[in-house]
Design goal:
Elements (H helix, E strand, L loop, with lengths): L2 E4 L5 H14 L3 E5 L11 E5 L6 H9 L5 E3 L3 H9 L3 E3 L5 E2 L4 H16 L12 H21 L1
Parallel strand pairs: 1-2, 1-4, 2-3, 4-5
Antiparallel strand pairs: 5-6
Helix pairs in contact: 3-4
Length: 151
């Protein structure tokens, strides 16, 4: 198992939680982005820079993910691809995407895109709160505990 991070839009505080997790557990954590990333020197953390372009990082993650891998992303189409490949997807607010909820999330995302394209101003997501960070860390810890028990 390894952890993949859709790093272009991943908040810095979430990356810090993931860096500590990689050091503590020894799980390979790979950040994928189309920009240069700074990561702590560690045999458990790597940064993978891909060429610039729409969905290039997402496509790389979707291609590389294996069953049982965990992907950190707020990108719903990427989460859907990860689930199809047998991986798990967790967003930076600590919510797991699943086969049960991904279709609904995709439909809502598409609906919101239609509203935006027709000129309706709907705003974006709220900023990440300290409660969101705690929820993410707790969800990650629960997942790792469960994954450790199944090995």
């Amino acid at each position: 198992m390894q952890i993949w991070v859709d790093a272009d839009a991943c908040p810095g505080v979430i990356k810090q939680i993931l860096f500590r997790c990689a050091q503590r557990t020894g799980i390979l954590t790979t950040l994928v982005a189309n920009q240069l990333l700074r990561v702590p020197p560690s045999p458990h953390i790597r940064a993978l820079q891909v060429e610039a372009g729409f969905d290039v990082a997402d496509n790389r993650i979707a291609r590389e993910v294996q069953p049982g891998d965990l992907v950190i992303t707020a990108d719903i189409p990427l989460a859907a691809q990860v689930i199809e490949r047998g991986g798990l997807a967790l967003n930076p607010r600590g919510e797991f995407y699943s086969a049960d909820n991904i279709r609904e999330r995709l439909a809502m995302r598409n609906f919101m895109m239609e509203l935006r394209s027709s000129g309706v101003e709907i705003g974006g997501p709220s900023s990440l709160s300290s409660a969101d960070r705690q929820t993410f860390a707790a969800a990650l810890d629960r997942y790792l505990a469960k994954a450790g028990n199944s090995q």
